[in-house]
Amino acid sequence: MNKPHLSFTQIVNMNVGFLGIQFSFGLQQANMSPIYQMLGADGKDLPYLWLAGPITGLVVQPIIGALSDRTTHRWGRRTPYFLIGALICSLGLLAMPFSPALWFAAGLLWILDAANNVTMEPYRAYVSDRLREEQHASGFLTQASFTGLAQTLAYLTPSLLVAVGMNKDALGANGIPLVTTLAFGVGALLSFATVWWSVRRVPELPLPAQELARLRALPKGLGPALAEIWGAVREMPPTMRRLWWMALCQWYAMMCYWIYIVPMLAASVFGTDDPHSAGFRDAALLNGQVGGFYNAVAFIAAFAMVPFTRRLGAKWVHAFALSCAAVGMWLLPGIHDKAWLFLPMVGIGLAWGSIMGNPYVLLAGSIPPERAGVYMGIFNMFIVIPMLIQAVTLPLLYDSLLGGRPENVIRLAGVLLALAAACVLRVRPESSS
């Protein structure tokens, strides 16, 4: 297919939908551990309660990718999945802060994450579909920048609501702060509205008649989709295989950070382990501020990385960013002054901007275009399998190896990010053409 060269404005518009998707993920990262603990969860059980994301991603994204590769709907191959997933996600966000019990919040997270995954996987393939190979770096790093912007807003929204007059200690009937409830309402609005914007502004390209005929001749349904996934796994390009070890280390590390950053801040800055204390609520707000800062760094860094990625290559830029985050993670637990917390967040922000862009630059150039959806879905398995491994193994290590302390979990994340930086340097990029 002869793809038109897109302007910078068009590339931005096509990625606006990622703002809503990632605002939802940002709300989860910043608030699910506090919500779970406010509803009665123990610290060592938090990884189990976060299983929804990895498991739904493992199941949903490859299947949706394979199905979208074969879809011939009049709206396009990817668009129907964008819109359905975004609508369900909006409803899940509205309901989450009203959860009456721990089991309800955990179950609702499964629905919410499944919907997010239905939307996100075709979105990755949509960027690969729509852009020429020489524009992949701009497309995926713009997508990464929207991740940073969305999660900046998601992390900061509760603090901004407090700044304009809301009472940070005002609680709903279930003990969840009202600022959290309103923040999830904002996320529900953005989830659908931003995806609709992108679909309207930069619609999918119509498929050539020959390609459309080929797709319509393919068998439909779940069975052929599963067979396509298995065939794609067996024929996986070498570059993609080499990205596994990097993905294992970096995503295990990021899950450690997201789950335990609020308990760590509560202990290291506010001197409390009690999830019902004012200090713990202050730690949740502080996490919103430092998390918003590192995502703002990611937003700026993702754009700034484009010329470096084009000139030096994605793997060198990614290795540098991961190394900066490794240092930052290791330093975090030893900081007791709130002001100094923002320094290591620069390194974490650099890595987050790179994580959401540069691995996809490496991947997109190595996969066949007609299988973009299924390979983007399979690549998501490189994200969720490490998350599953973390959820199963971290509780076994939490007391015995890590002393039952969230500070040590964050230090472990630093070590793993350093290993991820070493692993990415072993990747040899290749072209699918």
UniProtKB/TrEMBL annotation:
<dbReference type="InterPro" id="IPR036259">
    <property type="entry name" value="MFS_trans_sf"/>
</dbReference>
<keyword id="KW-0812">Transmembrane</keyword>
<feature type="transmembrane region" description="Helical">
    <location>
        <begin position="176"/>
        <end position="199"/>
    </location>
</feature>
<feature type="transmembrane region" description="Helical">
    <location>
        <begin position="48"/>
        <end position="67"/>
    </location>
</feature>
<keyword id="KW-0813">Transport</keyword>
<feature type="transmembrane region" description="Helical">
    <location>
        <begin position="290"/>
        <end position="309"/>
    </location>
</feature>
<dbReference type="InterPro" id="IPR011701">
    <property type="entry name" value="MFS"/>
</dbReference>
<keyword id="KW-1133">Transmembrane helix</keyword>
<dbReference type="Pfam" id="PF07690">
    <property type="entry name" value="MFS_1"/>
</dbReference>
<keyword id="KW-0472">Membrane</keyword>
<protein>
    <submittedName>
        <fullName>MFS transporter</fullName>
    </submittedName>
</protein>
<feature type="transmembrane region" description="Helical">
    <location>
        <begin position="316"/>
        <end position="333"/>
    </location>
</feature>
<feature type="transmembrane region" description="Helical">
    <location>
        <begin position="243"/>
        <end position="270"/>
    </location>
</feature>
<feature type="transmembrane region" description="Helical">
    <location>
        <begin position="339"/>
        <end position="362"/>
    </location>
</feature>
<feature type="transmembrane region" description="Helical">
    <location>
        <begin position="79"/>
        <end position="96"/>
    </location>
</feature>
<feature type="transmembrane region" description="Helical">
    <location>
        <begin position="409"/>
        <end position="427"/>
    </location>
</feature>
<feature type="transmembrane region" description="Helical">
    <location>
        <begin position="374"/>
        <end position="397"/>
    </location>
</feature>
